[in-house]
Give the backbone structure.
Amino acid sequence: MSEQEEIPTLQTYSETEKHRVFEKEFMPHIDSMYNFAFRLTNDEDDANDLVQDTYLKAFRFINSFEEGTNAKAWLFRILKNSFINDFRKKSKEPSKVDYQDVETTYNSEEDAETTQTVDLRAETVQDLIGDEIANALNSLPVDFRTVIILCDIEGFTYEEMAKILDIPIGTVRSRLHRARMLLKEKLKSYAKNLGYDVNADTLAEN
Amino acid sequence: MISEAEKVQGTPQQKKTHCEHEGECMKLVQLIVDGQATEEQMAQFKNNMAKCLPCENGYELEKCIKDAMQLRIEKKCVPTSLIDCIKKKISGL
Ligand SMILES: [Zn+2]
C-alpha cells in the first residue's frame, strides 16, 4: 500500500517548506490522531507507536499532500492503513481473532436490511456514565468501532469516511447502521446491569 | 405534562405507535443525526416525526447516543514526550 496512489499530482516542496507544511497542517491534528490510535489499540504504548509511525510516514510522503486540502482525513487514512498493515498483525488486542469472523459474517453488509430495533430509551443512555459508554464502544469489533469514532467523535462526513476507509459510501452507511445496532445492544446490557428494567415505562422513574 | 415539542407536533396519543416502514425510517434518522440528509429527506423526516412515535423515539435515542459519544467519552491528551520525539525524528530527516 502506498499513500501516493490516490493523489495523482506530486508537490515539490523544498526542505524548509516540508517542515513548515508538516508543522502547520499535520501537527494540529495530533490530539485527534492520538485518541483515534488509542481507541483502535486500547493501549497507550501502542497508540504512541502508531501515531509516531503515522507522522513519520506523513513526512516521508509529504509531496503527495497538497497544502490546504483535508489534512485531517489524509492523516487518518495513513493511520488506519498503518494499523491494518503493520500493526494489527502483532496487536495484543483480544478481538483480533473474532475480527476475522465478523469480517466474513458482515461481508454481505450491503444487503443487510436489518430492521430490528433495540429496546432502549434515550433517558437510560443519559444515566450511563462516560466510562460505561466508552466500554460499550471499546467492546465493538474494530471495524464497527472505527466508523463510530470517525463519524460521532471526529465528525467526518460519509464522503470523508469513504476515503479514509477505502470503501464505498453505501458501505459506510450500512456499516454505521450495524455498528450502532451493536452499540445499542451493548449499552442496553450495561443498563440492565445497573438494574434498569429497560422495558419499564417512565412510571418507574416517578 | 405536555412538552413544547408535543404541543407543536401533537400529543403522542395522536401519533401512530407502530411504524410499518420502520427500517426506512431509521435509515432516514441516521442521515438526519449525522447531518447528511438532503432537503427532501429533511422534509420527509419532519413529516414522519409529526405522526410517528417510533420515528420520534428512534431519533431521540440516536441523537442521545451520538451526543454521548461526542461529549461524554474522555479525551486523552497526547503525551508531550511523543510530540518531542516526533519533532526530533523529523528534524533529523
Ligand atoms: Zn416511522
